[in-house]
Amino acid sequence: MKETTTAPGWLLVQRVAAIAILLGLWSLLIASGTMPSMLPGVIQIFSGIGEALTSSIFWAALSRTLLTALAGWAIASIIGVLFGLIIGSIKFLDRSTSILIDFGRSFPVLALMPVVIMLLGSNARMEIVVVSLSCLWPVLVQTIYGARRQEAAVADTVAVFKIPALLRFRRVLLPSALPFVATGVRISASIALLVAVGVEVISQAPGIGRQITLMQQAQRWDLAFAYLIFTGLVGWCLAVALQQVENRLLIWKRQEND
Amino acid sequence: MTMQLQADAQPEAGTQLMKVRGMSMSYGFGASENKILEDLNLDVASGEFISIVGPSGVGKTTLLRCLSGLLRPKAGTIEVSGTVISGPHPDLAVVFQDYSRSLMPWMTTRDNVAFPLQGKGMGKVERNRVADENLAAVGLEGQGDKFPWEMSGGMQQRVAIARALAYNAKVLLMDEPFASVDAQTRFDLEDLVIKLKQELGVTILLVTHDIDEALYLADKVVVIAEKPATVVDEIITGFGEDRDQLATKADPRFADARARIMHRLRKD
Q1: Residue B263 in contact with residue B257, Cβ under 8 Å?
Q2: Which residues in chain B are closer than 8 Å to A162, comparing Cβ atoms?
Q3: Which among A21, A222, B63, B142 is most buried, taking Cβ atoms within 10 Å?
Q4: Does A115 touch chain B (CB under 8 A)?
Q5: Is residue B8 part of a domain?
Q6: Which of the given ranges, A103-117, B23-37, B187-201, has the highest pLDDT on average?
Q7: What is the side-by-side strand order in the sheet with B49-53?
Q8: Cα Rg for chain A, rounded, in angstroms?
Q9: Which of A160, A170, A180 should one mutate to test binding to chain B, selecting the residue with the greatest count of B CBs within 10 A?
C-alpha cells in the first residue's frame, strides 16, 4: 500500500518492465532454437489470445469453467465458514477434531477424482464436488484459527449482556474471525480455478481444460498456450478483486493495527 | 427527556438491590486449592455508590467477576432484586477495565451501545434512538457513526459506560474502569460517573485499587484485604451529592478516611 501512494507511476513502470523482460527472455529462448519446435513464440501466443477472444467456443468453455469453479468455491466457503466457526468456538469440538482436520488438509483431493468420476460421471457435478473438496480445507482451517482467537474481554461482554447464540454467531464470532476467514476464502478462490481446469484436463469434462487438451491434440500449440495464459489472467483478476473486497470489509482491522 | 425516563426506570432509592452472603471463591482443589475470597458479605441499596478498594492482587477482579455472574463462587449466595443468581443477570451491567477490547472494533459506537439491546429483541429504530441518547448522556453526542478505534481511550470508556447505561440495568458494576487513562481524563471520567449517578439515579459498584478514587466517588467504601480476601472495613464517606476534585479531596474527613484505609491496608 505504502509504495503505491508514494510513486504510483514509477511502480507501474517497474512492473511493466518486469513483464517486458520476461517476454523478451521467452522470445530469445525460442529464437535460440534450444526449445522444442512446438513451443509458440510471444507473438504467436498474442495472436492466439486474439483468436480466442473472438471465438464463441472459447468463451463458452471459459464461462463454463468459471461457473463450476465459482459454484464449488461458494459451497466450500459456506460449509467451511459455518463449520469452522462452530468447531473453533467450542473447545471440546476443536480438540476432538484437530487430527481429522490435519489429515483432511494434507489429503490429496485430486487422487479422489477417479472415485468421484465413478460415482457421478464426467460432468459438471463431479467437477463441483472435486473443487469444493479442494477448497474446503483452506477455508475451514483458517476459520477455525480465526474463531479460536476470541478476545477474552469480548467473550465476557457477550456473556454479561446475555447476547443470544445466533446473534453472537453473526455479529461477534463471524466478524472477529473475518480477517482469517478472508485469507482462507481468497486462497481457495485461486485453488478453485486451478482445480477446475485440472479436473477438465484429466477427466475431459467440458470446459476450458478440455479445450486446452483438444488444441494440444490438434497441434494448435499457440492456442493451447493462449487459453492457458488467458485463464491465468482471469484467475489473477479474481484474486485482485477479492483483495479489494477484503480491504474494504476489514478497514477496522487495519486501523486497529496502526 | 431521556434522563427523566432513565431515572423513572430505576427503583426507589434505598431498596435493597444486591445481597451477598458468605461468598467464597477459590481456584483448584484439595492441596493445591488457592483461596481468593472468603466469607464476603455485601449489601447494595438502590441509588448507592459503593467503592470496593483493595491492594493489587487481592482478588478484586475475581470478586467483580463473581458479582457479575461471570464466575460461580464456590460458596455463598448472590441475590439480585430478590433472586439468587447463577449467571449474568439483566439487572447487572458491567464496565470492564479493558475498554479497548470489550468494545467491538467492527461496530460503530452506536452499534456497540445498541448491541445488548438487539440481544434483548429491541427493534432497530428504537435501539438506535436509545443508543444515541445514552451516547449524548456520556458527552458523545453525534459521535455514533465513529468507530471505537477513531476515539481516544477516555472516549472509548465513555462508550462502554453508555453501553452499560443503555442496557438499563439496576446496578452498574465497574472493574477498575479508569485504570488505563491519563490523570486528567481520569478526573473527567470520575466526574462524569458522579453526574450520571446524580442525574439518572443509577446504582454503582466500583472496584479500584486507588484509595482517593474510591473515597472521592463513593457513598460507602468497602475495604477488602488479607489472603484470602474478605471485608475488613466499611466507611460511610458522607460527602453528600456535590463533589469537587479539589474541595472534596481537601475535606478533613477525606484525609481521615484515607489515613484509616491506608493504615488498615498496611497491616497486611
Answers
A1: no
A2: 88, 90, 116, 119
A3: B63
A4: no
A5: no
A6: B187-201
A7: B92-95, B171-175, B203-208, B49-53, B220-225, B230-236
A8: 22
A9: A160
Per-residue pLDDT of chain A (258 residues; tens, 9 = 90+): 444 455 778 888 998 999 899 989 988 888 887 777 778 888 888 888 888 888 888 899 999 999 999 999 999 999 999 999 999 988 899 999 989 988 888 888 778 888 888 888 888 889 999 999 999 999 999 999 999 888 888 999 999 999 999 999 999 999 999 999 999 999 999 899 999 999 998 888 889 999 999 988 988 888 888 888 888 888 889 889 999 988 888 887 766 655
Q: Do A167 and B149 touch (CB under 8 A)?
A: no
For domain A42-257, the CATH architecture is Orthogonal Bundle (1.10)
Interchain CB distance below 8 Å, B118 and A167: yes
Nearest CA in chain A to B116: A161
Number of independent structural domains in chain B: 1
Q: Which residue in chain B is spatially nearest to A248 when comparing CA positions?
A: B106
Collapse the DSSP code of B32 into the 3-class scheme (helix H, G, I; strand E, B; otherwise coil) and give the result.
helix
Nearest C-alpha neighbor of A79 from the set A122, A126, A137? A137
Q: Can you tell me whether residue B45 is helix, strand or coil? A: strand
Q: Is the Cβ pair B107, A156 closer than 8 Å? A: no
CA dist B141 → A63, A86, B34, B136, B230 (Å):
52, 38, 46, 4, 41
Question: Does the residue B76 lie in any domain?
Answer: yes
| Contact call for A255 and B147, based on CB within 8 A | yes
| Rounded distance between C-alpha atoms, residue B111 and residue B13, angstroms | 31
CATH of the domain at B179: 3.40.50.300
Pairwise CB contact (< 8 Å): B167 & A175? no
Check pLDDT > 90 for residue B140: yes
